[in-house]
Amino acid sequence: MGFRFVARFSQNNTFRPQLAVTREQLVSLVWESLKGIQGANIIFPSHVSIRPYSDVDISRWSAGKVLFARDNKIVSGYQDGTFKPTQPVTRAELMAVRRRAAEFGLSARGMQPNLVAKEPSKTLSDIQNYWAASIITQMSSYCSVAAAINEIGGLLSMILQSGITRRLLCGF
């Protein structure tokens, strides 16, 4: 299945690798990935009758996917009740969504939703007091999405706040 169908990457039949990935596109990609879990009992909404967030209308192409992700605690909105579906995803947000999606995937297969470390976690000095510090540390030991090499020059916190491009997302 191509990205064009999954995340609305269809403008002019091009991929546009430098464009940012939006929050709704990330949800769509995660949603499609979860559909492929063997032996999982996952029910996806076929009809949306309520707005998942105040800025996600039920007629929006991503409404059902956003509703599913919200209801299963894979994503969360903002304190003002919005989701900001067209806002670019940051790397820190991507790590948070990946963690929650992995936990959901384990639960869907009847397993405990505990991510087991596969290697020692990385000590990253420039994420202290950052909202996603514990997520980044956990994910560094689970699937190496944060590595010490990313910390060269103390730029990790700046990188985490930068957007995800389509090219970068394909590397995950």
Protein described:
The structure is a single chain. The protein has 172 residues and is mostly helical. Helix content is 38%, strand content 0%. The protein is built from 7 helices and no strands. The protein has helices at 3-7, 23-35, 63-71, 91-108, 133-142, 156-161, 166-170. α2 crosses α3 (63-71) and α2 runs parallel beside α4. It is globular and about 45 Å long. The chain starts with a helix and ends with a helix. Mean pLDDT is 80; it is low at 1-7 and 148-159.
Summarize the structure.
By secondary structure, the protein is mainly alpha-helical. 38% of the residues lie in helices and 0% in strands. It starts with a helix and ends with a helix.
What's the arrangement of secondary structure elements?
Elements: H1 3-7, H2 23-35, H3 63-71, H4 91-108, H5 133-142, H6 156-161, H7 166-170
Overall average pLDDT = 80
Helix amount: 25-40%
For the termini, the CA-CA separation is 16 Å
* Computed structural class: mainly alpha
Largest sheet features: none
- The number of strands is 0
Oligomer: single chain
Our count of helices gives: 7
Which key features would you list for this structure?
single chain, 172 residues, mainly alpha
